[in-house]
Design a protein that fits this description.
Layout (H helix, E strand, L loop, with lengths): L1 H5 L12 E2 L17 E2 L12 H27 L9 H20 L1
Parallel strand pairs: 1-2
């Protein structure tokens, strides 16, 4: 969470953006109830077991996050990020194009 705060991930709301995050980012969002910028699942504790609704919400969140996680796994497998030396905006465009091409090939 320290890295997320350092990299200004908490300023997503001002930019009009949002993120789906895993349980490692619980507590990062400063206004989670009204307008969440970072959506995380619910954690169970010893004293608070998850309800069926919370479990279902966690499953739905995991299903949506899986698409991005698979994309990052492909990029790591290809090791194409080790040689990228460009502005983040251009790298983002390049990565989007690579993921579209990879997913198009996989779905054939």
């Amino acid at each position: 969470m320290t890295t997320a705060r350092h990299d200004k991930l908490t300023e997503l709301r001002e930019a009009g953006l949002g993120a789906l995050a895993d349980l490692g980012f619980v507590g990062l969002d400063d206004d989670p109830d009204d307008h969440p910028a970072i959506i995380t699942g619910r954690k169970a504790t010893r004293n608070h077991k998850l309800t069926e609704g919370e479990k279902e919400a966690n499953r739905l969140l995991s299903r949506e996050r899986a698409v991005g996680e698979h994309g990052f796994a492909n990029l790591k497998t290809w090791r194409c990020l080790t040689k990228v030396r460009m502005h983040a905006r251009h790298a983002t465009t390049l990565l989007r194009a690579l993921l579209v091409l990879a997913n198009t090939e996989i779905q054939r």
